Automatic annotation (TrEMBL), chain A:
PANTHER family reported in the protein's UniProt record: FERREDOXIN-2, MITOCHONDRIAL (PTHR23426:SF65), FERREDOXIN/ADRENODOXIN (PTHR23426)
A molecular-function term among this protein's GO annotations: 2 iron, 2 sulfur cluster binding
Recorded family membership: Belongs to the adrenodoxin/putidaredoxin family.
Protein name, UniProt field: 2Fe-2S ferredoxin-type domain-containing protein
Alphabetized Gene3D superfamilies for the sequence: 3.10.20.30
Organism ancestry: Bacteria, Pseudomonadati, Bacteroidota, Flavobacteriia, Flavobacteriales
Residue ranges occupied by any 2Fe-2S ferredoxin-type domain in the UniProt entry: 2-102
Any one Pfam family match given in the protein's UniProt record, by short name: Fer2
Cofactor(s) required, per the database record: [2Fe-2S] cluster
UniProtKB/TrEMBL annotation, chain B:
Residue ranges occupied by any FAD/NAD(P)-binding domain in the UniProt entry: 9-306
UniProt-recorded name of the protein: Pyridine nucleotide-disulfide oxidoreductase
Domain Reductase C-terminal: 326-409
GO cellular component: cytoplasm
One Pfam family hit: Reductase_C
Length: 102, 413
């Protein structure tokens, strides 16, 4: 199980617990504002973009190639950007803080 | 804020468009009832995985648009397994099969489309013949494959649904032949070089694609069927899948005298010619400001974006529908991402990345205007293409095809 905290663009803080699936699914299932997951998690829509808190970035690691391609030219991208559909929930993510990019 | 607490918003169709609409309507501040009807008894699910990962993994539950609890939490009523049979605009009610009529203040039609089953001799008698549109279709196909010893599959139609299904079935051990009537696959939506690429991709993976194959009859032979084409060729199939296109579910709207024209006609707010009735998703013919024309789209993007526009409009905000269409398809390990509408192009440029042999992009122009981009394993081209199309950016074509110039936002100006 992992506790994951989302901070939305309205500065709302939402902490959720997940056991499986992707971080995007966890957010969509709990209506976290700004994470839409339109493509269902296949790395095609970038509506699940988050900025990982710098101190947690080691826990998620950086994006794979296709994800990186999707992010590279996005105006909202920074060095801590990830598509949350590509983050699989596991103990390793416990305690991380994600800022919703939109 | 509008006074909505005592109002009822009814949605017909609980799929990508209808479900997203319901949640967006709550987000926009609607306080009244929201009731979603669908004939499909399953908890609303994503359709794209049906022809892709579902066939391989077989887990529908990981595929829900929203978990059941979310509907309760947002106080959205799901009426599944219920068919809406008519709309009475004068009384502002809808009729539901075997149920009492339901009143509405606002009505949203999100009835989408159904798979087209062509009138081919013998098609009704064929066994193990399926379309690929609903969860039930995908489950039936998977079961048929799992229980068939020979697993010979004939897919009629070489569009996205047919090709994706072919790739997925191949992965689980079926012998697959795709029969395409036209002289190339994906003819309606891509340039010849893309068709060629996908033909080759499938052949390399052991799926046979045959073009100029017009199926004229199917004969059931007990446990299998024989599929006959008009050039006197025929193919034996334990399972036949029909992927020849869709028919829009517009009867309800038509019978209610709403304006119809290759789909339910809506304005930029997704509103029909009745101000209390909206229509969203695959079933609509809507205006696209960027391309300055009325179009009908079959895509998740369109369903989701129109759902936002309709929800905003009903809650008194003026959000207009103005998006560049986008679409994706996954086959084998290839990801295709498309953005824009290529109709009317007069030039196609291919850019093959120097550093990678599996990655390229196809750029469609009408004179100097970039209309659309198809990207194969190339998210960068897709993202940049989107930006260029949106901004009506003029592209330096010779730089675009020069792969010694790396792909960057400013590379092709
Ligand atoms: C196998 C498959 C793969 C796809 N892959 C992709 C993809 O990769 N990318 C992409 O962008 N798009 C893809 N699509 C298209 C995408 O799924 C559709 O564009 C999307 O589902 C449209 O949503 P919708 O809500 O408008 O209509 P639909 O999904 O068609 O839903 C309409 C709903 O209305 C219900 N309904 C209709 N009439 C009635 C009635 N009278 N009473 C009650 N209920 C009714 C139906 O049961 C249905 O559930 C795919 C589609 C399929 C079938
Ligand atoms: S959900 Fe579409 S890219 Fe993550």
């Amino acid at each position: 199980m992992a506790k994951i905290t989302f901070i939305t663009s309205d500065n709302e803080t939402i902490t959720l617990e997940g056991t499986s699936g992707s971080v995007m699914e966890l957010a969509v299932n709990n209506n976290v504002k700004g994470i839409d997951g339109d493509c269902g998690g296949v790395c095609s829509c970038a509506t699940c973009h988050v900025h990982v808190a710098p101190e947690d970035f080691a826990k998620t690691g950086g994006p794979e190639e296709l994800e990186n391609d999707m992010l590279e030219f996005d105006d909202l991208t920074n060095e801590y950007s990830r598509l949350s559909c590509q983050l699989q929930i596991s103990e390793a993510l416990d305690g991380i803080v994600l800022k919703v990019a939109k | 804020m509008l006074e909505t607490a005592n109002q009822i918003c009814v949605v017909i169709g609980a799929s990508h468009a209808g479900v997203n609409f319901a949640f967006n309507l709550r987000k926009e501040g609607w306080q009244g009832a929201i009731i979603l009807y669908d004939v499909d008894p399953n908890t609303p699910y994503h359709r794209p995985p049906l022809s892709k990962s579902y066939i391989v993994n077989g887990d529908l539950n990981s595929n829900l648009l929203k978990p059941l609890e979310s509907y309760q939490k947002e106080n959205i009523t799901l009426e599944l397994g219920k068919k809406v049979t008519s709309i009475n605009r004068a009384l502002k009610t809808i009729s539901i099969e075997n149920e009492t009529d339901q009143k509405y203040d606002k009505l949203v039609i999100a009835t989408g489309a159904i798979a087209l089953i062509p009138q081919i001799n013998g098609i009704k008698e064929a066994t193990n013949l399926f379309a690929m549109r609903t969860a039930a279709d995908a489950i039936a196909i998977k079961n048929a494959i799992d229980t068939s010893s020979e697993k010979r599959v004939v897919i009629i139609g070489g569009g996205y649904i047919g090709l994706e299904t072919a790739a997925s079935l191949k992965k689980i051990g079926a012998k697959v032949i795709v029969l395409e009537r036209e002289s190339r696959v994906l003819e309606r939506v891509t340039a010849p070089l893309m068709s060629e690429y996908f033909m080759d991709l499938h052949q390399e993976n052991g799926v046979k694609i045959l073009i100029k194959k017009n199926v004229i009859s199917i004969k059931n032979e007990g446990s299998f069927n024989t599929v006959f084409c008009d050039d006197n060729t025929y193919f034996e199939a334990d399972i036949v899948i029909v992927g020849v296109g869709i028919r829009v579910n517009a009867e309800l709207a038509k019978n209610a005298d709403l304006e119809i024209e290759n789909g339910i006609k809506v304005n930029q707010f997704a509103q029909t010619n009745d101000k209390n009735i909206y229509a969203i998703g695959d079933c609509t013919l809507h205006y696209n400001p960027h391309y300055d024309k009325f179009i009908r789209l079959e895509s998740v993007q369109n369903a989701v974006d129109q759902s936002k526009v309709a929800a905003a409009s009903i809650c008194g905000k003026n959000l207009i529908y103005d998006t560049i269409p986008w679409f994706w398809s996954d086959q084998y390990d290839v990801k295709l991402q498309m953005v824009g509408l290529s109709n009317g192009y007069n030039e196609v440029l291919l850019r093959k990345e120097a550093t990678e042999n599996t990655s390229f992009s196809v750029w469609y122009f009408k004179n100097e205007e970039l209309l659309a981009v198809d990207a194969i394993n190339n998210g960068k081209a897709y993202v940049l293409g989107t930006r260029f199309i949106k901004g009506k950016q003029k592209i330096n074509k010779s730089k675009l095809v020069d792969v010694s110039i790396p792909m960057k936002p400013t590379s092709f100006l």
